[in-house]
Design a protein that fits this description.
The strands form 2 sheets. The protein has a 3-stranded antiparallel β-sheet with strand order 3-4-5, covered by helices on one side. Strands 1-2 form a two-stranded antiparallel ribbon. 30% of the residues lie in helices and 18% in strands. With 149 residues, it is α+β, with helices and mostly antiparallel strands.
Length: 149
């Protein structure tokens, strides 16, 4: 019985050693993912950010006024997660090119779907959030044209 136990221990130690030297890496790289807000609900000290998945970033510092586009809600949902038209708006806002982000003022949702209002007063209509990245590229091309007012 002792002999069987000793063989079992050797097999386990051998397996651990093979795993450690053959498969395990010697470096550990910790990764911390910090959610980035793409929109805000509310203004002032009561404002909260919303990330690209529609999650309300409660407990985070209030976004600086004017730094994020506003969603048409006076307070965040109790669930802490946006759904429906508000989530569609967040998906469109999250797909905006970084160069346009400072110019996004607000969004809304109507019969035609999602609309984004720029600080210049221009309104861009997206419909739904499908292919929002492609729609933004098209909008950016039009906005870059000097003839656009």
């Amino acid at each position: 019985m002792r002999r069987i136990a000793a063989i079992g221990v050797l097999v386990v130690v051998g397996a651990v050693a093979i795993y450690h030297f053959a498969f395990a890496t010697s470096e550990v790289e910790p990764r911390l993912t910090v959610p980035a807000p793409v929109a805000a609900i509310g203004v002032g000290s009561g404002a909260v950010g919303v990330d690209s998945t529609g999650r309300v970033l409660a407990g985070w510092p209030a976004p600086e006024e004017g730094s994020l586009p506003l969603l048409p809600a006076s307070e965040p949902p109790r669930s802490g997660q946006l759904r429906g038209p508000m989530l569609e708006q967040v998906r469109v806002l999250a797909a905006a090119p970084a160069g346009l982000s400072p110019y996004l003022a607000s969004s809304s949702y109507g019969n035609g779907g999602v609309s984004v209002n720029l600080s210049s007063g221009i309104e861009i209509r997206f419909g739904d959030a499908t292919q929002a990245g492609l729609k933004w590229r098209s909008a950016a091309a039009v906005l870059a044209d000097p003839a656009t007012e």
